[in-house]
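Table S2 (text version). Query chain:
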Amino acid sequence: MAEYRVTGLSAEVIAELIAEVGPLWHEQHQERLAARPRRRAVGAGAKHKFVFVDRPPATLVSLCHGTTHDVLVCWFGVDRSTITRAIGEVRPLLAQGGCTIAPDLRLRTLAEVVEYLGVDGGTGIIDGTEVRVRRPAAGRKDRDTFVSGKTRQNVVKTMVLTDADRRVMFCSPVRPGSCADITQARQLGLDRLLTDGPFMEILADAGYQGMGAQTGGRVVTPPHRKFKKNAPAW
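Corresponding structure-token output:
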């Protein structure tokens, strides 16, 4: 868990973070114990199976990679409620120590993401990702709309936009798997935001061919086979 590729921090930094946050967590824990009447002496009862030293790394993994709590449950061998409660306790303590996102960089909508990337003429990357779902019940009128034309499986699809450093900036609501990538982008208004907004570059795969002409070349895709020799000006 102390591996840099897992937590995003070196082992030395994690040790300093634990030494800084540990007393604050212990103080809060004692306050919670003293806030209600007790029938047993302080220190009696069951001990923490999920010790504090493991809680900051688990929180860092959840924040860095968006790992679900079910995955952390398998790593640490505790209940899901324990992981959820631990992350809820440690996140505010990390924020007090400066491990948080600046308020002016908190992007909530696709329009804010496009505006943020367009300030410095940044580069973004978009792609659609599919997640398998249970096959809808027989007789449901929209049963076939969840079948993906690419994988031939029942899926839901979402569009993810990252910056050049592959940091996730936006993740759209899910759509049935039969929805094409470019259709989902148009329904989200990406073509309109790029056309009316500042000039920037969005890298995309062949599923978004056609948006380059609509956005004045702001969306860059692999050339269509009919444009390989005589590419248009955009």
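Notes on Table S2: The CA atoms of residues 149 and 178 lie 6 Å apart. The radius of gyration is 24 Å.
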